[in-house]
Design brief:
Elements lengths: L4 H32 L12 H13 L4 H13 L16 H8 L1
């Protein structure tokens, strides 16, 4: 074995982690931009540029960037103001919906 193999592995790992960080940050920023374009609901947008970026990242680098996309997507949705389930009323709680269901 070569003596520099441990350094090579460490360099590859640091490059991989930096790639993940870059993909995650880019996805997070694009997701937040997409969420600012939401018009009906604060967590629903017709334009979602982060998906295009995630698709391009997976096509270029393979599935190894999936953890970065997963974590960045979760972070973007958790930090979205107004998407908390506690702030929204259930659509089934209104009187008109209950009477409609009874027939």
């Amino acid at each position: 074995m070569r003596s520099g193999s441990a350094a090579h592995v460490a360099r590859d790992l640091s490059t991989y982690l930096l790639d993940l960080l870059g993909v995650g940050v880019a996805y997070f920023v694009l997701a937040k931009i997409g969420l600012t374009l939401a018009s009906i609901n604060s967590s629903t947008s017709a334009i979602w540029p982060a998906t295009g970026f995630a698709l391009a990242a997976v096509l270029l680098w393979g599935y190894r960037v999936a953890p970065a996309v997963l974590i960045a997507s979760f972070a973007a949705n958790v930090t979205n103001i107004g998407s908390s389930p506690r702030r929204r009323r259930s659509p089934w709680a209104t009187r008109s919906k209950r009477s409609w269901l009874r027939g």
